[in-house]
Amino acid sequence: MWSFEETLTSHSKGINTMTAPHIVDPAGLLGEALTDASPDLMRSLLQTMINALLSADADAVIGAEWGKPSPDRLTQRNGYRHRDLDTRVGTIDVAVPKLRQGTYFPEWLLERRKRAESALITVVADCYLAGVSTRRMDKLVKTLGIHSLSKSQVSRMASELDEHVDQFRHRPLDEAGPFTFVAADALTMKVREGGRVINAVVLTATGVNVDGRREVLGLRDATSETGAAWNSFFANLLARGLGGVRLVTSDAHHGLVEAIAANLPGAVW
Asked: I need a labelling partner for 100 at 20 to 30 A (CA). Which of 69, 150, 211, 248 fits?
């Protein structure tokens, strides 16, 4: 799997490709796209990530992981203090662990909220496309200034986020559909694989349903933009319940146009 942490070319905020190449942060750009088109997803993943970090950070202060005996334990958990946290994707429920003796105050979140929120959204977007890994989680916690977590805690957080991301990537599309309008595009980028830089693309589809709600339907990496890649991409969307599409917009890439006609025969291109 190539790293989704390199330079992205030929992309603008309107998700238009084949323009003059420029360099941006790909994970940050995808974070903006997911935040705009799937605020419920970002809100859910952001809440999951923050609460997992709070729990792991509190365990480090206590000196023992949740439910595990340890000679280094200093105190016990004593429930949670729930508070609302306003973010760019809406208000989330933050569960701050309480201790029987002493206090736990997550300075990295409550005093540096904007910085933490930006770092978390970028990592969530990165994980959405490239997969959740312990390395990404470890890099995140260090970015937030948390240096006391064990490898097992970081690994457990990665597993928890991976489960949520996987559920979203494979969610049925007929529940929020039908999606009347669909926009398809390919993001061209340079990525690092095995110590060398190669060209790759990310196939994307964004839909708008009959209520006017916009949502990211799917993203998939590919070595190149081909008709076969687009056919496989649309076949996956259809298998997940994509239906009712009346209009598809895209550039005039031959393989993409043919894949739209083959997989969405009732839609106008």
From this structure: 150
Q: 23 is written with which tokens?
A: 């360099």
pLDDT at position 2: 36
d(CA 241, CA 1): 27
Per-residue CA distances from 69 to 64, 73, 107, 150 (Å):
7, 8, 27, 15
Q: Where are the domains of the chain?
A: 38-169, 173-263
159: closest CA among 138, 132, 135?
A: 132
Structure confidence at residue 38 as a pLDDT band (50, 70, 90): low
> Contact, 248 vs 267, CB < 8 A?
yes
For 201-259, the pLDDT digits (tens) are: 889 899 998 888 888 898 888 888 899 999 999 999 999 999 999 999 999 999 999 99
β-partners of residue 81 are 96
Burial 204-221 (b: 16+ CB within 10 A, else e): bbbbbbeeeeebbbbbbb
pTM to 2 decimals? 0.61
Q: Which CATH superfamily, name and number, covers 173-263? A: Ribonuclease H-like superfamily/Ribonuclease H (3.30.420.10)
Band of the pLDDT at 12, cuts 50, 70, 90?
Answer: very low
Look at residue 187 and tell me whether its pLDDT is greater than 60: yes
- The burial class, CB within 10 Å (0-12 / 13-18 / 19+), for 195 is exposed
Backbone dihedral region for residue 102 (phi beyond 0: left; psi -120 to 50: alpha; all else: beta): left
Distances (CA, A) of 83 to 24, 32, 48, 210: 35, 25, 14, 35
